[in-house]
């Protein structure tokens, strides 16, 4: 996983630079990346690994503004930075929770869900069968790593669960392109 760690480190340093970069630098970089992604797909997931920082918030807002046809799927637990995101129609913010999330952070997420006009939704990583996922959570991910799937997920009947994270579920490759629940609110069930 050295390549992944190297990429993550590069991203951290780049976002650190973008925190104070001139607006023209942000716009140029956003156009370059946005156009490159659009050649392959109409969405970009940010922070499958890692999380937001002040520089990434500036970049996300710029990218959303200059490439409105690109859907930005932001996965985050940095609830303190979420209010800095703009109200962009192409911005879909997945607020990540699980059993380790502090009660204070859960309260923050509930407040964010109430007051925002853009597509904010809660997601839950379920690690054990007996966990009770709150009804206001829109998407559930069964704990999974590479090819590993939690054995309990084979009998999961919750309609909110991501089919690519369960035993004998959807193929993981290109599952997000096919499903789109996390960056298309019309396809989300709750």
What does this molecule look like?
34% of the residues lie in helices and 17% in strands. With 190 residues, the chain is of the alpha/beta class. It has one domain (2-187). It has a 5-stranded parallel β-sheet. Helix 1 (2-18) crosses helix 3 (54-66) and helix 2 crosses helix 3. The termini are far apart. The model has no long low-confidence stretch (mean pLDDT 90).
Q: Low-confidence spans: pLDDT under 50, at least 5 residues?
A: none
Main sheet attributes: strand count, strand direction, barrel closure: 5 strands, parallel
Strand content bin: 15-25%
Shape by Cα distribution:
globular
Provide mean pLDDT, rounded: 90
Q: How are the strands ordered across the major sheet?
A: 1-2-3-4-5
Q: What separation lies between the terminal Cα atoms?
A: 35 Å
Q: Specify the helix fraction band.
A: 25-40%
Total count of domains: 1
The total beta strand count reads 7
Radius of gyration: 17 Å
Q: Number of helical segments?
A: 5
> How would you spell out the order of helices and strands?
HHEHEEHEEEEH
Broad structural category: alpha/beta
Write the layout of secondary structure elements.
Blueprint: H1 2-18, H2 23-38, E1 43-46, H3 54-66, E2 71-76, E3 91-97, H4 103-115, E4 119-126, E5 139-142, E6 144-145, E7 148-149, H5 175-179
Parallel strand pairs: 1-2, 2-3, 3-4, 4-5
Antiparallel strand pairs: 6-7
Give a quick set of tags describing it.
190 residues, alpha/beta, five-stranded parallel beta sheet, two-stranded antiparallel sheet, 5 helices, 34% helix, 17% strand, globular
């Amino acid at each position: 996983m050295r390549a992944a760690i190297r990429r993550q480190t590069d991203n951290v340093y780049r976002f650190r630079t973008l925190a104070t970069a001139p607006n023209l630098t942000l716009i140029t970089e956003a156009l370059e990346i946005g156009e490159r992604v659009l050649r392959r797909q109409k969405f970009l997931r940010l922070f499958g690994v890692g999380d937001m920082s002040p520089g990434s918030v500036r970049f996300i807002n710029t990218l959303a503004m200059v490439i409105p046809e690109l859907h930005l799927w932001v996965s985050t637990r940095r609830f303190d930075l979420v209010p800095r995101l703009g109200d962009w129609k192409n911005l879909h913010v997945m607020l990540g929770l699980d059993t380790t999330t502090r009660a204070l952070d859960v309260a923050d997420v509930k407040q964010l869900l109430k007051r925002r006009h853009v597509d904010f939704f809660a997601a839950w990583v379920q690690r054990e069968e007996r966990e009770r996922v709150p009804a206001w959570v829109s998407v559930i991910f069964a704990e999974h790593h590479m090819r590993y799937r939690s054995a309990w997920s084979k009998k999961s009947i919750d309609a909110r669960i991501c089919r690519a994270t369960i035993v004998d579920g959807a193929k993981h490759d290109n599952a997000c392109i096919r499903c789109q629940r996390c960056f298309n609110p019309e396809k989300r069930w709750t």
